[in-house]
Design a protein that fits this description.
132 residues
Length: 132
């Protein structure tokens, strides 16, 4: 048996519409990351970017389990002394719910040069309206 590897220019990308209403945050992020990587395709290989486009709508209606709304904290640093900022999940959902989904998917993609390219194929929207 031989293993065949497709050429780099033969990528057929399709579009997936995912409704985030009443979906659990971690479970839906893993499904989105799988589609962006192309792991659901038979032509998957780690060094190629075979993933599809994902349009996620209704990001404000995502749900989480347990006490994550109060206890899950997102950190970022401003690169100034004493510049560590933190937001809880509830504050982040109120401020910009798209960032919660993007942050979750970004952490689930492989840490290599293809991660930023794959993230450009993720389109997250707060409401049900989208241009795609």
């Amino acid at each position: 048996m031989k293993t065949t590897v497709l050429k780099g220019n033969k990528v057929d990308r399709s579009w997936h519409l995912i409704d985030l209403s009443n979906q659990t945050l971690g479970r839906i992020c893993t499904q989105i990351a799988t589609i962006l990587m192309g792991k659901d395709k038979t032509t998957f290989s780690y060094h190629r970017d075979d993933g599809d486009y994902v349009v996620a709508i209704n990001a404000e209606n995502i749900k989480v389990t347990g006490k994550k709304l109060k206890e899950k904290i997102y950190y970022h640093h401003t690169h100034w002394a004493g510049g560590l900022k933190e937001l809880t999940l509830a504050e982040m959902l109120k401020k910009d719910p798209r960032k919660v989904i993007s942050h979750g998917v970004y952490g689930m993609l492989p840490k290599n040069k293809l991660r930023d390219v794959r993230m450009t194929r993720l389109k997250v929207f707060v409401g049900a309206d989208h241009p795609y």
